[in-house]
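input
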Amino acid sequence: MPSDPFWSNIFRRRDKEEADIFDILKKVPIFQDLGRREFNKIESILHRRNWNADEVIINEGAPGVGMYIIVAGEVRITQVGEDGVQQQLAILTGGDFFGEKALLDESPRTASAYASETCKIIGFFRPDLLELIESNPRLGLKIVMRLSQMISVRLRRTNRLLKEARMRVKQVEEESKGAELEQRETEGEEAGAISS
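output
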């Protein structure tokens, strides 16, 4: 029977798509240690979805349900400032991910995510992770350990940035006090010169 080029193209395209997704997921820290067999075990619990431009992916303040990995497209991460104005925090593209803290708890989202253009995104959700931990504890533990390492690295980075910001504020305050003291001395000298 001669091979049908139509069907072979469909299967070849699907194999390439799966290989591309595997390559993208291998770059996400929580999936980094997974081999092809382990990936095949979690593939069925990954949710694939396309998002249209300007469509809301997650809303700030909504309960977190899981993380998202961008396969293709661009996502805007925004947050409402104290003044009530929405501020852009980041632009994410293919291979980037967001929302991973929701795999650990369902606390409210601290930012919103919008599709800047048509996006292809994979979702990995907390209930699926909990089921995986029950059905395959070794694989589940591998993912949770990498997740905790990743969050720990981000927390250390945040602490470092906070420390640097505090040092800058302290430096500005000291410079301001020095300038204020210098101005008082200058005003005192001028007042003394006028009275003599």
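quick obs: The chain is about 50% helix and 20% strand.
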